[in-house]
Write a structure and sequence with these properties.
Blueprint: H1 28-34, E1 40-41, H2 42-46, H3 54-66, E2 70-75, E3 81-86, H4 88-91, H5 94-125
Antiparallel strand pairs: 1-3, 2-3
Amino acid sequence: MREPLPPDMFDELCPSGLTPIRFGDKWAPLVIACLEHGPRRFSELRVPLRRVTPKGLTKSLRGLERDGLVRRNSHPGTPPRVEYELTALGRSMLEPMKAVCAWVGEHWEELLDAREAYDDRLREAR
């Protein structure tokens, strides 16, 4: 039995929003992180990814599947059950993502300061 995904896995202050490198799309790295420890159903993914609309999550999952990073497995039954899991290629993304997250952690304040300075310049120009 797998541990459930924590609902606060990606809170609003999650540094993923500051990451200047995007893997696929805005939500793709978060989906990959959710699948790190094994297959998950759509409803399980929705718990920590509650800020993503169902349409947005579906789009991310399809894009990851198209790129060969995620496999969609349908299990017969009533109702049918669908799970998503990382492929070997998808698993190969985990280390680079951890490196990017570590970089963001080291440069968090600089990133926030740069964004604030940029926004201030835009306000002043108006």
